[in-house]
Structure formats: structure tokens, C-alpha cells
Known about the structure:
Layout: H1 11-31, H2 33-44, H3 48-76, H4 78-96, H5 102-117, H6 120-130, H7 135-164, H8 166-185, H9 218-221, H10 225-254, H11 259-287, H12 289-309, H13 313-332, H14 334-342, H15 347-376, H16 380-398
Amino acid sequence: MEQTPDSGFFYGYIIVISSLLISIVMWGSRLSFGVFIIPLLDEFGWSRALTSAAFSVTWIGAGLLSIVAGRLNDRFGPRLIMTAAGCFLGLGYYLISTVSNITQLFIYYGVVNIGMSTVITPLMSTVARWFVKMRAFMSGIVLAGTGIALMLAVPLANRLILSYGWRHSYLVVGVVTFMVITINAQLLRRDPFKMGKTPYGYQTSKTPATADSSGMTLGESLHTRQLYLLGLVFFCSYLLYYLIVAHIILYAIGAGITSDRAILIVSTLGLAGIAGRILMGILADELGNKETMITCAILMIISFVLLLLSSQFSMLMIFAVAFGFGHGGMATMESPMTAHIFGLRAHGAILGIVFASDTVGGALGPVIAGYIFDLTCSYSPAFKFAAVITVVNLVAVLFLKPVGDTGTPHPAPPEPVKPS
């Protein structure tokens, strides 16, 4: 028998709303680097590759720490972890507002990325545990925070910089990030069963061996090819995403497009990302996870073909729609596809490994593009490289498939407490 939420308001929706708010400010603070890089370059005269590296290289550490964060979330739940994340993020952005040399920028972004590492995996793993039915859709709503951040936070950061300078703007970012994350963290709960509830769409007729709480252990997953294929998919996807986010404004301005229009391209990317995350989440729940990921991968290939054809504003807007929608849908699938392939037993830890893969890709993307530009004084070779990566991404998706549940089943979950 399929369980739907108990009568009254289902607490899983609180989980989703709080996670969405955290996602917006978290990604807003990070993705605004695309506008902060311009005054940093102007004031300090650093190269694009070196400045991008401060933003990106420390992101690799965040990916590795996310594995630990995922395991801690599996054990302790998200509330304590997310509170600590808010503190690290707030402190990191405050420190960046005081930076005076490139070494400090690397160190302070390292502090920021410690906070980032403890945000993403716990959020998505928690949402996956509260929803069986509509899992991809609810994951998409939370991840829509990335698109909302691009639409709202990036233009807002640009206005703050123009009005108050980049140092005061970073200070504002730190305060807002700290407050929103730490307040919403208090509303998060890891396990619906411990609250006397069942996940949305939970199959009560399942035996313990087939319940959604079963699945592979972390150690078992490490011996499967599917884990590394899934990691490759999101390595490629986020290499492409951060390459674009970090450099598309500079590329557009270099092509003769005004800064306001360049910001509009990023906002369009964000809007398309919102649509992709939500609509492709709905499609995945109906059509299937793999089929949805194939569609998204093809869209990203098409988008880079368009980007290579022309640097006109109209073509860049079309690119932003196609790439934003495709990547948005792909990003939505990271947590649901991990659950689909490996189950929920060690979902947080396994998702942490997948997330570590995409952080490595996300770290390399901006640095590679910046390095190629410094060598060639053109973004065209970097975009050709990215087009090849879109094809690798599609090939990896085509080989994804679920693996058998070889783990020892969990005991059956406790009976839900009936409301009086």
C-alpha cells in the first residue's frame, strides 16, 4: 500500500522550503563570483587564471569534505551540520572582504568552501529520504535555488558593488548567508520515521529486503563501475557549468555587449535553470531518470554548438536558455539517480562521492577557460574544448544503470504514529 502524507500539513514540505531558501543564498553567494572577479582584477591586476583558481581549486577540497558531510548526515542528521555550514560561510565571506593579496584569497575561499561542502550533500540526501514519490520533482525545487540565485543574487551583487564597492558587498553577502542558513537549519530533520511519519509515496507493503531504506553500503558501491560513471557524468556537467558561470560575463563584454546585457544573459541562464530543474524533475518522475538525463545531455551539446556559431547577443540568449535548461535538469538528477542506482542505505555518503566528482569538474572548468584565454586571448578554444566534454557527458549517461542490492537489509521501519 502506498503511503501519502498524514492528514494535515506534511512536514516534508517544510524540509523542501527550508532547503530551497538555504540553496538560494548558498548558490547566490558563490555564483556572484562572476561579477566580483571584475573589480578584483581591476584592483590587484591578477591574471584571470590565477584569480579563477582561488575560486575553483579550494572547491576541490569542498568536494572531498562533502563525503564526510554525507556520512555525518546519515548518522546525525542535517540540523547541526547545516548550522556549522552557515558559520563557516559567513566567516569566509567576511574574511574575503578584507583580502589584500592572492594568498589570502585562496585561504579565505578555502574557509567558504568548508561551509559549502557541508551544505549540498546533507540537503539533497535529506530531501531524498522524505520523498519516494515525487523525489526528482522535490529535488528539482530545491536545486532551483541555483537558478533563482543567478536571476536575483548576481544582479543584486552587481548593484551592491557599483554602490558600495566589492569589500562592503562581500560583507553583506556574509551576513545574509549566515543568517538565512543558520535559521533554516533549525527546521531540518533527517528521518521522517523518527517523527512518526512515512516518506511521501512509501510502499508499506514492501518487505525489509525491498524497502527504500535498503541499498548498498558505501564500501559496496566503491566496487561498482556505476559509481565512477555517475561521477564522470557530473564531473563533466559541472565543469561546463562553472566554466560558463565564471567567464560568460567577461566573454560577452569582450564581444562588445554591454555589462547590463551580459548580466541579463546570466539571469536568463538562471531562469532556464529553474525551469529545467522543476520540469525535468517532473519528467523524471513520469518518464524515468536515465531518459531524462539523456535529454538533458543532448540539450547541452546543442547549446555549445550554438555558442560556437556566434557571439551575438541574441545567440548568447538562446545559448543561455538551452544550456540553462539542460544543465538544470541534469543537476536535478544527481540525488535521485544516486538513490535509483544504489538505494538509500548510505545515500548521503555515496552522494558525497558523486558530489566530490562534480566539484573537481567545477573547480577545473573556470581555471581551464582562464588559462586558455591567457594563452590565446580568445574564449573560442575553451568553448571548443567544452563542446567535446558535452559529448563525453552523453556517452557516460548512456551506460548508467541500477546495480543489485547486495547489502544486508535494514530492519523494517517503525510503524508511523497515528495522529490523535
